[in-house]
Amino acid sequence: MFAATDTSLADGTHRVRQADSRVGYESASYVTDSKVVIQSLGERQPLFELSVNPPLGLPALSNQLDPAEIDLGRQLFFDRRLSKNETLSCAMCHIPEQGFTQNELATPVGHLGKGVRRNVPSLYNVAFTENLFLDGREQSLESQIWSPLLAENEMANDSREAVVAKLASNALYRERFAETFDEGLTERTLGRALAAYQRALLSGDSPFDRWYFGGDELAAKGGSGVNGYPTLAARGFTVFKNRGCASCHRVNASSALFTDGQFHNTGTGYRRASRAFRPPLVQLAPGVFVVPTVDAETETFTDDGRYEVTGLEADKWRYRTPSLRNVALTGPYMHDGSIATLEAVVGFYAEGGGGDPAQDPRTRSVQLTQSDQAALVAFLKTLTSSHVDGLVSDARSVPIGERTAGGQ
After folding, report:
1. 287-295: which pairs have CB atoms within 8 A and are 24 or more residues apart?
2. Is-contact 208 237, C-beta < 8 A?
3. If you write DSSP's letter for every residue of 42-80 in order, what string do you get?
4. Which of 397, 399, 393 is CA-nearest to residue 16?
5. Distance of alpha carbon 336 from its chain centroid, rounded?
6. Which one, of 131, 184, 165, lies nearest residue 309 by Cα?
7. How far apart are CA 323 and CA 126, in angstroms?
8. What confidence category does residue 25 fall into, taking pLDDT thresholds of 50, 70 and 90?
9. How far apart, in whole angstroms, are the C-alpha atoms of residue 207 and residue 214?
């Protein structure tokens, strides 16, 4: 049982939804509604046990995880020494309190303020993702770590050897890697540790799961309350199936990842390309806009999606189907974070997507009344796991790794 689901944490400590909505940010009268994210250390949760018996609604893991590797990976995930100038950790893009993504930015900021092209993918249930990154350029969690670690606009390390050498200079890491792996600290074992922690971020057992897979009798009758399933959400699930949403966001007989793992063109890439130019104004703060006088990166990058991996014209502006699990927690949405709310996402599809003549026809023909849209959103909001706050508390059970003495 995850301790963080206990009412003893009702004060709001170690919970999802600590992000600033940023509504009205363009105005000088804007007032933040940010919450304090790290008030105290959280409570370690039984991630290994959860991986042995995955939450309701999830399939079994193909390989058993190692508790020691999970613990080491958790420590590394929050260590800023993994970036070149020791200011960024994995968790500064994949923020536990914000659904292991970023709610406050459409696209993240990396090394020395450089922009990153794509919205941060949530790490919930990444253990089941076969094609990693939104363009599917990696197939292994162990090897994918090097993309952000070495990218000049992310963590900007000079080389794999430099990362390993920095960690090897730390006596605690030398000891922990020696205890955990026969070969000690290497490029391979660094990947294994970080991958183990990410694979342990399992989240199922949502209200939908308890209704659909758990046989909740009251919910099955359309009841409401603690054990019931909202009638509007049940209708939304019917809309979800009948309007073709489930053809990409799959639901199986005994489990549901709510994704087919494939790549589709919904028109968002086409829409992004139409405004891929340097804006005349850049916002620096609430109500503060300036005309850039230097060549600075902004969020308006061109991005050709899967085409950048395969070189196939048919793959232009195709992106991997995201899971819908915990989708109410992981906005903003689309590959570029260009849609702020679930209501707006549903409206986007109701209006035919982004308007690309080459987009997937299923995204151009979704017929949704206003009533259908409201029901669909109600359904999506029932896909939030009962474990998400436990994952936050577990994540914050380790102190953030600080800069090394004499670091850059």
Report:
1. 287/26, 287/27, 287/28, 287/29, 287/30, 288/28
2. yes
3. -----HHHHHHSPPTTSPPPSS---HHHHHHHHHHHTBG
4. 393
5. 13
6. 131
7. 9
8. confident
9. 9
305: nearest Cα among 279, 333, 336: 336
Give the CA distances from residue 351 to residues 36, 267, 354, 364, in Å, rounded to whole numbers and listed in that order: 38, 11, 8, 8
Give the pLDDT of residue 285. Answer: 81
166 with 187: CB under 8 angstroms? no
Asked whether 94 and 144 are in contact (CB, 8 A), the reply is no
Place of tokens 């993240």: 108
Structure-token match 């709310």, residue found? 341
pLDDT of residue 220: 45
Q: Work out the angle at residue 87's Cα, subtended by the Cα atoms of residues 85 and 89, and round it to the nearest 5 degrees.
A: 115
Residue 371's alpha-carbon distances to 67, 75, 236, 346, in angstroms, are 47, 46, 9, 12
Look at residues 249, 225, 253 and name the one whose alpha carbon lies nearest to residue 236: 249
Cα 26 to Cα 327: distance, rounded to the nearest angstrom: 26
What's the CA gap between 77 and 179, in Å, rounded?
18
Task: Tell me the residue type at 11.
Answer: D
Cβ neighbours of residue 336 under 8 Å, at least 6 residues apart?
106, 107, 117, 118, 119, 268, 272, 299, 303
pLDDT per position as a tens digit, 185-242:
999 999 999 999 999 999 999 999 999 999 864 444 444 444 579 999 999 999 999 9
Report residue 285: phi and psi, to 5°: -165, 170
DSSP string, 312-344: -GGGTTBEEPPP-TTGGGS-SBSTT--B-SHHH
Q: Which residues contact 165 (CB under 8 A, 6 or more apart)?
A: none
pLDDT number for residue 92: 94
pTM listed for this prediction: 0.90
| Residues across the chain | 408
Neighbours of 119 (CB within 10 A): 26
Domains defined along the chain, listed by start:
3-203+387-395 (1.10.760.10), 207-273+297-383 (1.10.760.10)
C-alpha distance from residue 384 to each of 18, 72, 159, 166, 380 (Å): 16, 27, 38, 38, 8
Instruction: Please tell me the distance from the alpha carbon of residue 400 to that of residue 46, in angstroms, as a whole number.
Output: 20
Between 165 and 25, residue with greater pLDDT: 165
